[in-house]
Amino acid sequence: FASYYGDHMVLQKKPSGAVVWGHGELGAMVTVTLSGPSGLIIMGKTAQVKGHSGTWTTVLDPMDQGGPYALTAEQGLENMTLRDIYFGDVWLCSGQSNMAMTVLQVANASQELAAAAHYPYVRIFAAAPARSDVELEDLEQIDLPWSIPTAAENLGHGNFTYFSAVCWLLGRSLYEALGSPIGLVEVAWGGTPIEAWSSRQVLQACGLPEDKGREGPQISLWHGACFNLKPSLCFAPPLNLALSSSTSPHQHLSGPQVPSVLWNAMIHPLLNMTLRGVAWYQGEPPFLSPGVEQPPLSHRALTSPSFWGTGEANAFLNTDHYNCTFPALIADWRWAFHTGSAGQTEPLLPFGFVQLSTYRHRSADDSFARLRWHQTADLGVVPNVRMPNTFMAVAMDLGDEQSPYGSIHPRDKQNVAHRLLLGARAVAYGDKDLVFQGPYPTRAILEVTRGLLNVTYSQALICRQRDAQAFEVRSGIFSPKSYEREGNTDVGFSLPQVCCSSQVSPCQWLPAPVVAVGSHTVTLALSGCRMLVLGLRYAWAEWPCEYQACPLYNPQGLPAPPFL
Q1: pLDDT tens string 369-420
Q2: Where is the signal peptide (predicted)?
Q3: In DSSP terms, which residues pair with 125 in a beta bridge?
Q4: Domain 87-208+253-287+311-437 annotated CATH 3.40.50.2020
Q5: Domain extent listing, the chain
Q6: Looking at 395-440, which runs of residues are DSSP E strands?
Q7: pLDDT digit string (tens) for 248-275?
């Protein structure tokens, strides 16, 4: 069997068929059998070993949820049996250090770890961080083979190693909601930009150089054997040490910046796996020493020894390409997993993600705000036309300035997982009556004589505080280019803002204080704006509000997302 099949694993249940593959002697026939607890054979498949690397692949018939089963592969006189296998839903969890934060590191960690014993049918697996300059056929190394969750051995293994708290809490909640076994596959590495997780095709589609990086000799070669072939049809040959290297646990926070090296080593090997969904948490900048007040970051500061990780990620690297790279990555992963699994992973694979949280409490930099906006393909909410079948957990109200792991790593992963769960239930599992996102504006009406702007929202509103800086309007002549050039000069909280125009001076963002909050409407005062309103923005700051205290929520407790 390939490296990521093992005892205790979860395979995808029906309506999809689980893909099973492995290695063998070229030309030989492999017989695969699935048997129940009594040993009775339920299903048999045969596959021939093919290809330059000698692999076989078969697709099991769709199975109802449940188990335990045994899966045996036989070639001649040799055989291997995997036991305690269940069929359920398999979710892939990927990203950088906030996805890699373990259950040991979150709020109420001891309580969460103690509860692990109640979830023996949520099975966990973690790939080891690895990079490669060509697409690999199989994982080089595994941090955690398929396991039944335990407090000490796996969920509480260490910091930023395994197992992912966000992934575990989401999977545990899915099990509670669905009653089906859940398989969780963690593939994460701290400090890594989206470009490292992207295939060459994504970089080309977004106009990014394919050899951009600061790691000198590790720059990708781009000459793998599968350069022009579909991932389901070809895999690169085994690598020598000059081309590939796995990493030790202490490097989990300092991932590579080179394009495609994580796609090659950590995602491409998994493409044959039949999946139910993906959870993604990526985009935050590198890990700073906790307790140290940080000035706005220059490139020199970003790469200085004061960082606990060396990766810029995308809050400071190619920020304004993220509105292309992220939707392109989603579409590319979907196509790759669909074709790699012989069509068993659905083509519009549900894809959930966490919108960027907070970092520096008072910062003049608007990189975080821009990246949050770009995470939605500049449309504010998901799913949308550019990002169908996606869902988002807003996290800008979950800041944690006292986190011992640095404020970039907030410890409240329970609310993050709960918000992802709501999206997964609504988008992936079709619970149409479930409210899974916060209120979003649908129209704005200007009362010129009274100097007011009435903003109507899609849902009922709960106002937790009236921050005078929450909304902003923008004055002057506005264009996307001038906006990118000027940036945001506000410091501290920034929630409603509007844009006015005199057709003379450049645009300036001005506070638009909240005058009243109705059931679905927010009324803003435009006292500082006596010209044409050109723009309105909300929560446009690196740290928009205190913990669970942004101005606007819905009755279900979900925050209104930022918008521009």
Answers
A1: 999 999 999 999 999 999 999 999 999 999 999 999 999 999 999 999 999 9
A2: none
A3: 185
A4: no
A5: 87-208+253-287+311-437, 441-482+495-553
A6: none
A7: 433 455 689 899 999 999 999 999 999 9
